[in-house]
Amino acid sequence: MKKNLSIRISIILLTFSLTVQLTACNMPRRSTTTTPSGAALYTAAAQTVAAQLAEATLFPSTATQYPIPTLTLIPTATIIRPTPTNTLPPPTPTPLPCDRVKFIKDITYPDNSVVDPGAAFTKTWRIQNVGACTWSPQYALVFTAGEPMGTAASVPLPKYVATGEMVDVSVTLTAPTAGGTYKGEYKLRNAANGIFGIGENNQSFYVQIKVPVQTGVVYDFLAKAGSAEWKSGTGTTFETAIPFNNADDDPNGTVKIKEGVTLENGSTSSKVLLTYPKRVNNGFMAGTYPAYVVQNGDHFRARIGFMLNGSACGAGKVKFRLNVIQDGNLSTLQTWDKTCSGDLIAVDVNLSSLKGKTVQLMLAVLASGAATDDWAIWSSPRIEHP
Fold first, then answer.
1. Is pLDDT above 50 for 306?
2. Which of 63, 96, 191, 268 places its Cα 20 to 30 Å from the Cα of 16?
């Protein structure tokens, strides 16, 4: 609106100026009428303009009105500057140790493989040299802990092994005869006799097998009687070595297998072990059997009594005894006093207290006084595992 008003004022002033000039040109040069001065003309023009402005104010123009544009403030952009980060120097690399092993995998007999009792087997590992030094054939695999299973003290490496290379190493072992889980641990030994293993903590690599627990009869004393060492003597003194299956009337005592004989309870035997003590007062007969590894739950079982020498029971009177030899020491597990009374005694000894031990068991018969009619027999002596 202000713009239109300015335009109108300019037009009015221009028109007034032209009018004044034209009037001045047409009027006679000489006149008796007083000519208005310039100031009067200017005042008249101003009054005219003022009147027109008043008219414009009282009577607004109907011309198109143009809106005054609204100014929109543009927000000032905020400049985000990244926070400077301290740059750390790269870490100093840690030098490799000379000797270090990395386990790769089991080639044979992975953990908890089942191996038959007493069976020979070869365990092989694949390992990697992750140290800074080359392994030479002067390096060796060595046993360090656990169950040795007949292992060699050391096994040389088969070749030179540079850093980063892998090699297969093996040991030949024999499974224990008793059932159970067995573990043997190994490391490497360098040319200077230093022992080292896996990783920073020098851990061992190992073999772990399971030997199945045998059930039923695991040790038959009748079948092994010929392999036992038999001796007789007096009191507690061993005096004479006795051959197995010797004569019935040997004065030093008799040890042999008998079959189809009559027992004191009137039954006819299949196979029994006769152990007649030395034929003197307080004589004895004893047999030490081959070594055996006891399993948890093993029981010694047998029936003990007398064989008849004729139709009568006789004057037999003895002590049956089960002994054990462990680490060279002899001890008694159990003793049974027996007379020829017409009944056999069933015996049952739990051997679990010896589990895992390699022992030798001894069957012994001791005369109580005179050895007359001491035809002492062991019927079905055995070790059973339920």
1. yes
2. 63
